[in-house]
Amino acid sequence: MSGHADLNSTLIDAVENGDPAKVYRAIELGADAAIITPAHIPPQQETDEHYEIMRYLFSVGTEVNFAGFDEGILMTFSAYRGQLRYLRLYLEAGADINLAQPMNGVTGLHVAVQHNLPDVVRLFLENGASVDQACHEDAPTTDPGHVYGETALHFAAAGADWVIIETLLAHGADRSAKSSRGETPLDYAVRNHRSPDVQQLLS
After folding, report:
1. SS3 for 141?
2. What is the DSSP letter of 143?
3. Which of 115, 31, 47, 126 is nearest to 77 (CA)?
4. 49 by DSSP, 3-state: which?
């Protein structure tokens, strides 16, 4: 048992340090790829080595849809960083495009909109993201903050560029969707002093 635990520890270290050879060797010797979670995978390290490690791990049992880590899921981590290559890798590995962070219901689409990343928004929508999926009704975020049942259009109305609002609407976003506090995207736009043109677009 201790030998197996040591192999798993070696695997975790190799993943965190971006060492493909050690990752392959640990798996060959019996390490369990299923122990690797978003807590161990550093997608901020945009090296070819980390990319190859992740692709390999998904092929041998690492769960791309792991949602037991409070701070986030792979899709939201890479959406935040605008990592299109990683997001495509996750989708190829079977990622659920609508998977949400368990503590607050925030999806990758929400994150991409909130951080004003039009290319990432398009990737999510073109791959079937639910445009009107709402966050949890009253839940904390990690930035810190709170969500109140908002859709991606609520987030866009609060501060995203015009092109993101248009993209969401073109994919059927509901202008009349209400947050858990009874507010529409237009209410968010007004409260955040968005331009008359943006407010008109959301009317």
Report:
1. strand
2. T
3. 115
4. helix
Homologous superfamily, domain 76-203: Ankyrin repeat-containing domain (1.25.40.20)
| pLDDT string in tens for the chain (203-residue length) | 455 679 999 999 999 888 999 999 999 999 999 999 887 876 566 788 889 999 999 999 999 999 887 778 999 999 999 999 999 999 999 999 999 999 999 999 999 999 999 999 999 999 999 999 999 998 888 766 889 999 999 999 999 999 999 999 999 999 999 999 999 999 999 999 999 999 999 99
- Superfamily the domain 1-63 falls into: Ankyrin repeat-containing domain (1.25.40.20)
Q: How far is CA 37 from the centre of its chain?
A: 14
Kindly report the length of the chain. 203
User: What own/partner pairs with CB < 8 Å and gap ≥ 24 does 195-199 have?
Assistant: 197/162, 198/157, 198/162, 198/165
One-letter amino acid at 200 equals Q
Q: Is 114 exposed, middle or buried (0-12, 13-18, 19+ CB in 10 A)?
A: buried
Amino acid occupying residue 104: N
